Structure formats: structure tokens, C-alpha cells
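for the writeup, i need someone to sanity check this before i put it in the appendix. the sequnce is what the collaborator sent (i think, or maybe the updated version? ugh). structure was predicted straight from it, no edits. if anything looks off just tell me and ill rerun, i have time this weekend
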Amino acid sequence: MLTISLLAKKFNLSRTTILYYEREGLLHPLKRDLNGYRLYGDKALFRLSQIVSYRALGVPVSEIALLLDGKGEQKRILQDQLQRLQAEIERLHQQQMAILKFMKQPDTEENSMVTKERWTEIMRAAGLSDDDMHNWHIQFETLEPEAHQEFLESLQIDADEIDRIRAWSRC
């Protein structure tokens, strides 16, 4: 039997995540001890390992119960997730293409001063939606915050707007 803290540690999850899975009906303690601590048995361990595996595949929590209960929905749910991943790959490919297109711009005096409006135009021409551009900023801010700052400055954006864009990128 494991307490919630030991269970969380075993799966490298937070206590809050375990409680969230309980609230969503995915996981249940076997019993509570005299102090009120939740105690989890082997069945919960196995179930949590499945939950963690499905989450690693990106399956939404809302669909995991159907996968765990085995009511014939597994194939459909996994196919749906595969389609979501394919769509995300396509969005990332579009972002790559936008960056490559931008990098191939001739380095003339006129083009060396890329503005926010010109950059947005390039991104849209590469097929990125507003949501795709937001995701692009989120990824840039997450992976390279200093470079994101420098990039925004290079677009001649004022400091207040840069602060707003970076805060928006942390959502």
C-alpha cells in the first residue's frame, strides 16, 4: 500500500496530479488509514501506470476513462489522438516553412528592417493562423526567452508591447 505522496513520487507526478485524476474518476484509493491518508494498492498502481502512458501519448484526460474501461473505444480514441498529432505536426511544419521563407528574404536595406506587420504577413503567407502564431510565440518564449526578447526588439516593437507579447506567450 502506498500513500498519495509515495505514489506521486513513484510516477514522478505531483500530489495535485494524483488528486486531479481522482476528481476525474480515473483513480481511486483502496482505502484510508486511521489518519485519513489515502492508501493505494496494486490495482491503482497498474491503473496509474496506464494513465501515465496514455498521457505521454497526449491523450486528453477526458478520454482516458474510456480507454481504461475498455468499452471498445480504444481504437477510435487512439486514431483521434493520432489525427491531433498529425495536425500539430502540420502546424509545426508550417512554422518551419515560415521561418525558412523569412530567412530567404533578400538582405536589402528595405528588407533588413522587418517590422511586426511584415513578420505577421510572412507567417500568414506560410499558412499560420492566429492560434498557430500564438503557439509559435509560446514555444519561442519557453525554449529561448532571451532570443524571443531580442527577436521582438528587432521588429521595432516598443517595450510595453514586448512585455505584453511575452506575458501572452507564457499563458
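The chain has nine helices and three strands. The mean pLDDT is 86.
thx in advance!!
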